[in-house]
Design a protein that fits this description.
This protein is of the alpha/beta class. Helix content is about 40%, strand content about 15%. It has 9 helices and 7 strands; from the N terminus they run αββααββααββαβααα. Helix 1 packs parallel to helix 5 (about 120-135) and helix 3 (about 60-65) runs parallel beside helix 8 (about 215-230). Mean pLDDT is about 80; it is low at about 1-20, about 180-185 and about 240-250.
Length: about 250
């Protein structure tokens, strides 16, 4: 990324930081940041979105929301790819009931499916931080839930994107979508994507990686991840990656 573009990211972040705090209290501010680059074919991109829609409308997620101190969260669903491609399929919405959850899920499902070429994880994180800092909400927990099927190949360096999240007290959790086969679900990658997300993407107290390797596992991972994030819990020992205790100083 050129120096001028990089500078623009930090100017934007600084400007957003000056915005007055939001006036609507919620338990969690959650950005669902979903990879929609061309490494995911159109059929599988639609199935990926359907997995989020099903999870958002599930009884378990709704119960988790209603079990919080205020019983409501603010959530937005953002699809991303290139460094200049981050689009909200559903903008910030307060979800406090089954009706709210179903309406938000329907909005995500109905949004046009647009794609981008590259995988700019850093730019997606910077965009998500800006969305959190510029919204109309306040919450004790700020979370970016980012999925991806490969390592970054364009855009803002990940160490700088993570610094933006750390400075804004935003936790970044990762959902790497992993496959050894080409074409069916996602393209194969040349790195260990679990390790890549642990070492380069996630950040913040309690941050974790929950990988998915099949379509069915992807749907289950989304559901579990949302419940964990909304409830403010930790993954179970069978789910958690071995780096969690090292990053947080807490045993799984």
């Amino acid at each position: 990324m050129g120096a001028a573009v990089l500078a623009a990211f930090f100017v934007a972040a600084s400007a957003v930081s000056a915005v007055q705090p939001g006036s609507i209290d919620v338990d969690v501010e959650l950005v669902l940041a979903v990879d929609i680059s061309y490494s995911v074919d159109e059929e599988e991109a639609r199935r990926q979105r359907e997995g989020y829609v099903a999870a958002l409308a599930s009884e378990d997620v709704i119960r988790s929301i209603q079990g919080g101190p205020l019983g409501r969260i603010a959530v937005t669903y953002v699809e991303w790819a290139d460094s200049g491609f981050q689009r909200a399929a559903a903008d910030w919405t307060v979800v406090a009931s089954e009706e709210d959850a179903l309406a938000f899920a329907s909005q995500v499902a109905a949004a046009p499916l647009e794609r981008g070429h590259y995988t700019a994880i850093g730019a997606a994180l910077a965009d998500a931080v800006n969305r959190i800092e510029s919204n109309d909400y306040t919450a004790p927990r700020l979370i970016i839930d980012i999925s991806g099927d490969g390592p970054q190949n364009q855009g803002l360096p990940l160490d700088q994107a993570r610094a933006l999240a750390d400075n804004a007290h935003v936790v970044v959790n990762g959902l790497p979508v992993i496959s050894a086969d080409s074409g069916r679900w996602v393209r194969p990658v040349e790195v260990n994507l679990d390790d890549y997300f642990r070492d380069n993407v996630i950040t913040g107290p309690g941050a974790f990686v929950l990988p998915a390797r099949t379509e069915a596992e992807f749907r289950e991972a989304i559901l579990r991840k949302l419940i964990i994030e909304i409830a403010g819990a930790l993954p179970s020992p069978g789910e958690v990656d071995p780096f969690l205790a090292q990053r947080t100083g807490r045993a799984p």
